[in-house]
Amino acid sequence: MVSKASCRKSFIDSSVKIARAYGFQGLDLCWVSANTSSDMTSMGLLFQEWRATVNSEAKNFSGKELLLTAAVHYVLTRCRKCFFSSGLHTE
Protein backbone atom coordinates (compact mmCIF):
# COMPACT_ATOMS: atom_id res chain seq x y z
CA MET A 1 0.00 0.00 0.00
CA VAL A 2 2.70 2.52 0.91
CA SER A 3 4.81 1.94 -2.18
CA LYS A 4 2.23 3.77 -4.35
CA ALA A 5 1.67 7.50 -3.84
CA SER A 6 -2.03 7.23 -4.73
CA CYS A 7 -2.57 4.52 -2.10
CA ARG A 8 -0.73 6.54 0.54
CA LYS A 9 -2.87 9.57 -0.25
CA SER A 10 -6.08 7.56 -0.05
CA PHE A 11 -5.05 6.04 3.30
CA ILE A 12 -3.99 9.41 4.72
CA ASP A 13 -7.11 11.24 3.57
CA SER A 14 -9.48 8.57 4.86
CA SER A 15 -7.69 8.25 8.21
CA VAL A 16 -7.88 12.01 8.83
CA LYS A 17 -11.55 12.06 7.79
CA ILE A 18 -12.40 9.22 10.18
CA ALA A 19 -10.41 10.80 13.02
CA ARG A 20 -12.33 14.05 12.67
CA ALA A 21 -15.69 12.34 12.24
CA TYR A 22 -15.29 10.46 15.51
CA GLY A 23 -13.58 13.23 17.46
CA PHE A 24 -10.25 11.44 17.85
CA GLN A 25 -7.27 13.42 19.10
CA GLY A 26 -4.90 11.52 16.88
CA LEU A 27 -4.05 8.40 14.94
CA ASP A 28 -1.82 5.45 15.76
CA LEU A 29 -0.19 3.25 13.14
CA CYS A 30 1.11 -0.20 13.94
CA TRP A 31 3.33 -1.59 11.20
CA VAL A 32 5.40 -4.59 12.20
CA SER A 33 6.17 -5.97 8.76
CA ALA A 34 8.51 -3.28 7.41
CA ASN A 35 11.55 -5.45 6.81
CA THR A 36 13.39 -4.03 3.82
CA SER A 37 15.04 -0.72 3.08
CA SER A 38 12.32 -0.15 0.48
CA ASP A 39 9.65 -0.68 3.16
CA MET A 40 11.46 1.74 5.46
CA THR A 41 11.73 4.35 2.73
CA SER A 42 8.03 3.97 1.94
CA MET A 43 7.15 4.21 5.62
CA GLY A 44 9.19 7.41 5.87
CA LEU A 45 7.29 8.86 2.89
CA LEU A 46 3.99 7.86 4.48
CA PHE A 47 4.87 9.63 7.72
CA GLN A 48 6.12 12.77 5.96
CA GLU A 49 3.01 13.00 3.77
CA TRP A 50 0.72 12.17 6.70
CA ARG A 51 2.26 14.91 8.83
CA ALA A 52 1.99 17.46 5.99
CA THR A 53 -1.68 16.57 5.50
CA VAL A 54 -2.41 16.79 9.22
CA ASN A 55 -0.71 20.20 9.43
CA SER A 56 -2.62 21.52 6.43
CA GLU A 57 -5.92 19.99 7.54
CA ALA A 58 -5.69 21.57 10.99
CA LYS A 59 -5.46 25.04 9.45
CA ASN A 60 -8.54 24.40 7.31
CA PHE A 61 -10.40 22.59 10.09
CA SER A 62 -9.82 25.39 12.60
CA GLY A 63 -8.82 22.82 15.15
CA LYS A 64 -5.84 21.24 16.75
CA GLU A 65 -3.48 19.14 14.71
CA LEU A 66 -4.07 15.45 15.08
CA LEU A 67 -1.37 13.56 16.95
CA LEU A 68 0.42 10.86 14.98
CA THR A 69 2.00 7.93 16.78
CA ALA A 70 3.42 4.68 15.51
CA ALA A 71 4.65 1.31 16.66
CA VAL A 72 7.12 -0.02 14.15
CA HIS A 73 9.51 -2.94 13.91
CA TYR A 74 13.13 -1.91 14.24
CA VAL A 75 16.27 -3.97 13.88
CA LEU A 76 19.38 -1.86 14.40
CA THR A 77 21.72 -3.98 12.30
CA ARG A 78 19.38 -4.00 9.34
CA CYS A 79 18.13 -0.44 9.52
CA ARG A 80 21.16 1.59 10.46
CA LYS A 81 21.37 3.05 6.95
CA CYS A 82 17.71 2.98 5.98
CA PHE A 83 15.71 3.99 9.03
CA PHE A 84 13.80 7.20 8.55
CA SER A 85 13.71 8.55 12.11
CA SER A 86 16.27 11.30 11.50
CA GLY A 87 13.80 13.08 9.25
CA LEU A 88 10.93 12.94 11.72
CA HIS A 89 12.36 15.01 14.55
CA THR A 90 11.80 18.27 12.64
CA GLU A 91 8.03 18.08 13.03
Automatic annotation (TrEMBL):
Start and end residues of each GH18 domain: 1-91
Pfam families registered for this protein in UniProt: Glyco_hydro_18 (PF00704)
Biological process, per Gene Ontology: carbohydrate metabolic process; chitin catabolic process
GO MF annotation terms: chitin binding; chitinase activity
One annotated Gene Ontology cellular component of this protein: extracellular region
TM spans (from-to): none
Annotated PANTHER family: CHITINASE (PTHR11177), CLASS V CHITINASE-LIKE (PTHR11177:SF362)
Name of protein: Putative endochitinase
Protein species of origin: Morella rubra
